[in-house]
Amino acid sequence: MTIERDLFITEVALRDGSHAISHQFTVDQVLQVTKALNDAGVPYIEVSHGDGLSGSSLQYGFSKTNEMELIEAAVSVADQAKIAVLLLPGIGTVKDLKEAASLGAKMARIATHVTEADVAPQHIQAAKELGMETVGFLMMSHMAEVDKLVEQAKLMESYGADSVYVVDSAGALLPDGVRQRIRALKQSVGINIGFHAHNNLSLAMANTLVAIEEGATRIDGSVRCLGAGAGNTQTEVLVAVLDRMGVKTGIDVYKMMDLAEEIVAPILQTPQEITRESLTLGYAGVYSSFALHAKRAAARFGVDSRDILTELGKRKVVGGQEDMIWDVAEEIAASAKSPAKV
Ligand SMILES: C[C@H](O)CC(=O)C(=O)O
Ligand SMILES: [Mn+2]
Fold first, then answer.
1. Does 1 have pLDDT greater than 80?
2. Measured between alpha carbons, how far apart are the two ends of the chain, in Å?
C-alpha cells in the first residue's frame, strides 16, 4: 500500500539528538525508537553520530556505541521507513558511506558549511552510485546572504543531489529570513527543498510552517525535541499541526505522541527546554551542538557560558572549531583575573 504524503518528514532524534545526550545511544534505544517511528509511518529516520559518520572523536565527543551497529540495528526493524545517514566531508569518508549503504542505509545527507558546498561533489556522487537518495545539507544557513545560499544550492544540485536543505543550525533565523531563503531556492533550483530548524528562539514550528508555505517538501523534526540545543521542530507536534492544516504526512498522530512519551522521554538526561544556553545559541547565532561543550568549559574555567557563546558568535566560529570553545573560555577567565587597565 502506498501512503499518501504531501511532504516527507525526516526524524533526526537518533542523529541530532546524539548531541543532546553526549552521543550515548545504545543499540536497544535505537531498536525501540526506530521500530516505533517506523510503525507510526515516519518515512525517513536518520541514525549517525551527531556530527555525522565518523564524528566519534576527541573533538566532537566519543560515541558509546559504534554508529555502524546503530545503523544496522535501525535497518533491522525498519520494514517501511528508510534509514538515512549524515556525512560531513572531511569527517566522514566515502568508505564510511559504502559501509552504511552495505548495512542498508538508503539516504545520504551530505552536510557542508553554507559557503562550502564545493567540498561535497565526491561524496554526493559516491552516494548516488551506491543507489542512495542524496541530500545537500547547507549548515549555518543564517550566515549567508540569500544570493550566496542560492549559489551554493545550485552547486549541490549540479553535483546530483536530489534535495537541498536550508539548515538553521543555530536556530537563529527569524520567519522572514526563512521565507526569503526558501522562496529564492524555489525560484532557482529544480530539486526538492528541505528545511531543518532548531528551537533556540522558540521559532522552530513557526519557521517550519513558513518553509512549507514557501514550498519546502522535505522537513526535519525531532521527537520530544531530542536534538542539539533546544532541539528541532518537535515531530509529534508538527504532525498534529499539519494534520489540522490538512497537510498529509502519512504519520499517525497518536502513535507519535505515545512513542514520544513512553520511549523517547525516558532517554532524555534532562527535559529539552529553552535554557539560557540554548537561548543564547539562537540569540548569538552559534552552532547548536556547542551548547553542552560551552556548559562544560564554563564550569571548568568558572565563567558564564553565555559569555563564551556570545564571543563565539562574534568570532563567527563554525562546526569543526569546537576546540575554540575552550580557548575562549580560558581567555575570558584570564581577562577576569587581570582586567585590562583603562
Ligand atoms: C553536524 C550538525 O549537527 C548538523 C545539523 O544538524 C545542523 O547543522 O543543524
Ligand atoms: Mn541540527
1. no
2. 73
